[in-house]
Amino acid sequence: MRSSMPLTHSDVRSLLDILDRSEGLESLDIKLGDFVLRARKHGAAPLATVPIEIPAPSARPVEPAPPAATPGAAAGAEVPVTEVPAGMTAIRAPMLGTFYCKPSPEQPAYVQEGAAVALDQTVCLVEVMKMFNTVKAPVAGRVRRILAEHGKLVQHDQILMLIEG
What we know:
Order of helices and strands: HEEEEEEEEEE
Number of strands: 10
Mean pLDDT: 76
Distance between the termini: 58 Å
Strand content: 25-35%
Shape: elongated
Radius of gyration: 18 Å
Structural class: mainly beta
């Protein structure tokens, strides 16, 4: 029989508080051994998800991944965009995490360069500890550049995309 590390009431309350306070986080699915916690905000659209089991904590510290490079750029060939060009609106990472341009590996990207986007349209996900945070377009317009690389670490407030409009 496999032992599992159950969450305390305080742990669950803390996780639900994070879900409640996060604007971009619509749902939370956690599985620890036989324990499953699924929480969704009222009106949140169901996501196509793959169940992921959280491994037991290890004594070894996790090394941070290097910053994401611009897609197609040679290593060190292009400086990351830190300023927003005139006429553009930046979509920034709401937190440190992994950038995903698709809802699942089998599905197409939310948006591509040159695509028109509507206000509040989902454009990507940022995942932290198996919690997927929806990132939405702050304006309507056209995606001019996607600066983050699918599956790579992004920093808090890093520019992920530039929208013209």
